[in-house]
Fold this sequence. Notes:
By secondary structure, this protein is α+β, with helices and mostly antiparallel strands. Helix content is 24%, strand content 20%. The protein contains three helices and five strands, in the order H-E-E-E-H-H-E-E. It has helices at 10-15, 55-61, 64-80; strands at residues 23-26, 30-34, 42-48, 92-95, 111-115. The chain has a five-stranded antiparallel beta sheet, covered by helices on one side. The site of guanosine-5'-monophosphate (5GP) has 14 residues, from strand 2. Guanosine-5'-monophosphate is lined by residues 10, 19, 21, 33-37, 45, 97, 103-106. InterPro entries: Histidine_triad_CS, Histidine_triad_HIT, HIT-like, HIT-like_sf. The active site is at residue 110. One of its GO terms (molecular function) is hydrolase activity. This is HIT-like protein.
Amino acid sequence: xxxxxxxxxxxxxxxxxxxxxxxxxxxxxxxxxxxxxxxxxxxxxxxxxxxxxxxxxxxxxxxxxxxxxxxxxxxxxxxxxxxxxxxxxxxxxxxxxxxxxxxxxxxxxxxxxxxxxxxxxxxx
Length: 124
Ligand code: 5GP
């Protein structure tokens, strides 16, 4: 089944500069910005600049440069926000929701980077 990307989704509009955002980091392949409804003291969204719906779409169809660039940006964000364990922070959680079961609200791949408080146990 082909992936169908909706050019009118909110993050596409953010990438086109049609909706403002509080940018944390921008690189050739990624944009990181504060979530509008933060669930933790640190709640940043990192998105690839390409039109990818979800994680598997990106991982299977993006170029190696895009994949490396995006992942590096996620790492940079953790470093910049000083949430990486043992190096100025107490750790973080990276989450990417996909589809209905994953409760994905915005159909442009994004990872949530959460930190700044104890986040509780998610999986047993
Ligand atoms: P999802 O459920 O798709 O994984 O999460 C989407 C996230 O995008 C939510 O945490 C929501 O608060 C955030 N969000 C939705 N609209 C906007 C927006 O216009 N600006 C920003 N910065 N975040 C948004």
